[in-house]
Amino acid sequence: xxxxxxxxxxxxxxxxxxxxxxxxxxxxxxxxxxxxxxxxxxxxxxxxxxxxxxxxxxxxxxxxxxxxxxxxxxxxxxxxxxxxxxxxxxxxxxxxxxxxxxxxxxxxxxxxxxxxxxxxxxxxxxxxxxxxxxxxxxxxxxxxxxxxxxxxxxxxxxxxxxxxxxxxxxxxxxxxxxxxxxxxxxxxxxxxxxxxxxxxxxxxxxxxxxxxxxxxxxxxxxxxxxxxxxxxxxxxxxxxxxxxxxxxxxxxxxxxxxxxxxxxxxxxxxxxxxxxxxxxxxxxxxxxxxxxxxxxxxxxxxxxxxxxxxxxxxxxxxxxxxxxxxxxxxxxxxxxxxxxxxxxxxxxxxxxxxxxxxxxxxxxxxxxxxxxxxxxxxxxxxxxxxxxxxxxxxxxxxxxxxxxxxxxxxxxxxxxxxxxxxxxxxxxxxxxxxxxxxxxxxxxxxxxxxxxxxxxxxxxxxxxxxxxxxxxxxxxxxxxxxxxxxxxxxxxxxxxxxxxxxxxxxxxxxxxxxxxxxxxxxxxxxxxxxxxxxxxxxxxxxxxxxxxxxxxxxxxxxxxxxxxxxxxxxxxxxxxxxxxxxxxxxxxxxxxxxxxxxxxxxxxxxxxxxxxxxxxxxxxxxxxxxxxxxxxxxxxxxxxxxxxxxxxxxxxxxxxxxxxxxxxxxxxxxxxxxxxxxxxxxxxxxxxxxxxxxxxxxxxxxxxxxxxxxxxxxxxxxxxxxxxxxxxxxxxxxxxxxxxxxxxxxxxxxxxxxxxxxxxxxxxxxxxxxxxxxxxxxxxxxxxxxxxxxxxxxxxxxxxxxxxxxxxxxxxxxxxxxxxxxxxxxxxxxxxxxxxxxxxxxxxxxxxxxxxx
Length: 853
What we know:
Keywords: ATP-binding, Hydrolase, Kinase, Magnesium, Manganese, Metal-binding, Nucleotide-binding, Phosphoprotein, Protein phosphatase, Transferase
Helix content: 25-40%
Domain PPM-type phosphatase: 514-722
Pfam family, one: HATPase_c_2
CATH superfamily of the largest domain: PPM-type phosphatase domain
Enzyme class: hydrolase
Structural class: alpha+beta
């Protein structure tokens, strides 16, 4: 699909099209690439969803704006994306029923396939036949050659689809062209049928003879220049109906001379292509500055024997336009740069201050690092809006270009003053395509050197007045100083972020029957370290601990304490303590550190086998559960005080029940609390956004939840999706009483368990390991002893727990006369692997035995 998009967009440049067609193809190319990339990325995201279902979603999104002026074109663009068409067009029937006229198209210009502006409704064309019969027509190269449908020199390399369509405003046809060798496949045709039934055509151009126009509308005959105008438009031009002679030249004479070229491109038929047009222009006023007006028009062909007509509206746009002087603009730029903290903030402030007043088509701002330009902002951001050289030779979506590759730019930077080149100036290709209608290069001076450069380009010929030159010069000096300050701020902030990331897990572990992702965003409000943290701790017996917390304040002390608390919680959890004991130990440790800071924490111990969890809160936000059906609950988990506040604090445990597909979300207050909304409203919003997310891809869910995060505080987010284990281990346990027959009882329990599991053939090896481990526990420890047997897949795990924290030591050498010390050596010899793990107040010695089956 991506290759098809590139092919569609490149055809219009290779065949020498009209300027309007090229501009339209360029704009479409930008739209297509973003849409196709979203579609390609959505293939995986959609899972088993069909292309038709994705097309339905896209058409539904378009339908949410039924009054949008470009709605019809946006529907046609879905044809290019989902039906893999190179061209899509709509023809509607005129009022008299004689012609099917083109009203909109998208994709490669229609002239490349010989499509006309109109077809006779009763003629012999494929468009007329499909409209008359009400059945779709699918024409291949041979059928097209027989019909002489194409005017191309080579007509045998595309397929044509014509589908009758009935809309809200009339009826007509949807036409699509495919350059694929096999034409439209079944899915393509299914999507075309869906789009044809979705189309809602605009009503034909109103016949004004004998009827009045709306007060804000006009109707212009393109051959004679006679125009019918509503009363509201005459009021905007400050002319009465008695004074108006019906000539478009009269209205053009009242406009600002600089705006005439753009208006002439609309009212002259040679410069107007089929479809919508919108532009803003100024009209002179008896007193005061000119008034801004907005024209929206649609050109439809009149058909054979009748002239084409331009029908549209004119509205007052002065409220959207500011009569701010250039001095005021410089003052506003200075104010915005004073609060810009990062290089990107500075770049965006410069773009906002310059592009709209200068009516520039593109603007780029770059830092100068040694001999290279590192671009920080491109506006518009689409790579295809910028020269091909920037992407091909420098091989970067956002170019990191050597200054020596652009001698004109290098000379401007050496001279240190703004340079302006009007349209037609011969420049190197890397700059000529930035501003074919005019280019301005602003070196950004700061501290006796050049901090960067700003490139401003226009597509149509642009006249540089003295006011613009003064605005550019003044803006360059302000931007250079701000860029240097922001660069230093960014460097310090990056160092702070790097230090803080070192205190967080580098990667999360893989979990059996679950998946976890985490995100961390440092605050951009200052340069101090924050105290938010998260952790995922694998525990024995397929348990996992999810931890998230926040240390009070933003400072090096807060970050240090955060690292200590994360390490302590991990250590206490690894010792095998239950969740409330883990949090209590962490609280006691923080009290003993004698710090003025406190911390909040949420600890969730999840049993991945049973789908149960225990939650402990220490002054932190409760977890949010998203159930498989999409409903969300904010867990009503009773909480204790923050860590480090009370020595004798209780931290109750709250049970949670998880079904396969349940999503657990833990976050810090930086994501849900703000000045405008309290934390309860933020949690409700967080739960609502989680309910709307697709849990299939946790990374995308996390990114979406952080999309509106306020960066005035640190943000930590931890998500885990519980899927359920495909194969659950089989478990049995036995309490070993300290009696003379204890080892024999343990062997009988083991033999009985293995027989019930169908492992009678493995009993000798397992019994030997059980005898040695149980004997060691009874001889070398005191207190209760418990035996655990676990089988999963082809491995049997034998574990013996006791109350002594000391691990058994394997002897280095044993003499012939020694009476002990061989037990661990036997266990090691009979096991695939063995070891010890701490449990609450003691240890567990375990051995894994590989079974034959």
